[in-house]
Specification:
By secondary structure, the chain is mainly beta. The protein contains two helices and six strands; from the N terminus they run αββββαββ.
Length: 97
């Protein structure tokens, strides 16, 4: 199991369980797959926090305080901030708060 701080140093294969904090408002973006919704939040655990980018229908699945387990996540760096992402092959399980 990876912590939020460890995930910031990794690129792929991240398995993490943490709590959703500071979930923002969804916004519409254009991607190569067409128009979709995206939302920023933070995952937080005892080690710290990491920005988590939530796409599409996953946005409705989580709310602040929920525990989220992500299997096979990956990170990118955007505007000098490391962000955790869920790929199409990743699994996400939500435990409501």
């Amino acid at each position: 199991m990876t912590t939020c701080e460890e995930a910031k140093q990794m690129r792929t294969g991240i398995t993490i369980t943490a709590t959703i904090r500071d979930k923002g408002e969804p916004r519409t973006v254009n991607t190569k797959y067409g128009e979709t919704q995206v939302c920023d939040a933070y995952l937080e655990d005892d080690s710290g926090r990491i920005k988590f980018t939530i796409w599409g229908e996953d946005i409705q699945k989580v709310k602040n305080g929920d525990s989220v387990a992500i299997e096979n996540g990956y990170t990118t760096t955007f505007r000098n901030e490391v962000q955790l992402n869920k790929s199409r092959n990743s699994k996400m399980e939500v435990t409501p708060s």
